[in-house]
Structure formats: structure tokens, C-alpha cells
Amino acid sequence: MWQQDSLMMYGKKIAIPRLQAWHGERQLNYTYSNLTLSAKPWTPALIALKQKIEAFSSFEFNTVLANCYRNQHDSVGWHSDDEPELGINPIIASMSFGAKRIFQLKHKVTGEKFKLPLQSGSLLMMSGTTQEFWLHALPKSRQLQPMRINLTFRKIKSQ
């Protein structure tokens, strides 16, 4: 399930500092930073979580990007989930399991920052203009951190 992909940065191939897996319907693709992920079939556990989140949010999702942060050294830098296949003002349901980590938000214009400690079992819904006006990140930690898995359920528009 898990894979460690690489990105080209400054002419060098760099391993993404986390493991990831992309699951969804009908082989839906997702591209970010010139990396294209092809959806693997849903697992029963992912379908069960998807259905619970859909019942809670009243929104349907057709894919999930799973990230495995193995320890305090794994991270994701500042970014917005604003890829064209997500459409305008996407709704993203982010569910966390395992170690508590600090999720950060930063306004693209003012630089205002927020830190949200996400506990195991927490659900963060990002919607409206969140991706348009805010960046988010899960930085490395100086403290020893056990594994954390984050599932970001999304809806890919027709391709």
C-alpha cells in the first residue's frame, strides 16, 4: 500500500519525506508538484471511514490520499490543495490516527498563522476558500514522535 515517491526540486530527484498511498474510484489520477498518482482500489477499511465521514459532512468523496509520517522527521511543507482536478473551493476531510502532531495554517496574504494539535481520531474539515487563501503544513518535530497516519478524503472532478 505505502510508497515513497520522489519529486524533482531544483534539478534533483528528492524523496518525499513521508510515505503515501492514493485510493479511489475508477483509477482516478491526482497530480501535484508534477507527480501523478493513479488510484488503487478502495480497501474495506477506507470505504468504512469514507462512509462515516460522508454521513457526518453530507459531502461525497471519491478518493483519499493517505500519508504515513513514520516519525518526527517526516513532514509536508507549506502548500494548498488547489490542483485543477479538485475544482474551485474543494472540501477536504482530513482524519488523523496515531501520534499527535501540530498542523499549521498560514494566510497567503497576511502571514497570520494558526497551530492545531491534531489528536488521534480527529477530523479536520477544510472547505470554502481555505485552499484559496491559506497554506497548510505538518512540519518536522524536534521531539520524538511515533507514527501518524493522515487520510485526506477528496472529490476529484471528472477527468
Explain what the structure shows:
It is a single chain. The longest helix is centred in the first third of the chain and has 14 residues, at 44-57. A hairpin with a 5-residue loop joins β9 and β10. The protein has one domain: Jelly Rolls (Sandwich), CATH 2.60.120. It has helices spanning 44-57, 130-133; strands at 6-9, 12-15, 19-24, 29-32, 35-38, 63-69, 76-79, 92-98, 101-107, 113-118, 123-126, 134-138, 148-154. The strands form four sheets. The protein has a five-stranded antiparallel beta sheet, with helices on one face. A four-stranded antiparallel beta sheet has the order 7-12-9-10. It has a two-stranded antiparallel sheet with strand order 1-2. Helix content is 11%, strand content 43%. With 159 residues, it is mostly beta strands. The protein is built from two helices and 13 strands. The radius of gyration is 15 Å and the shape is globular. The chain starts with 5 loop residues before the first strand and ends in a 5-residue tail after the last strand.
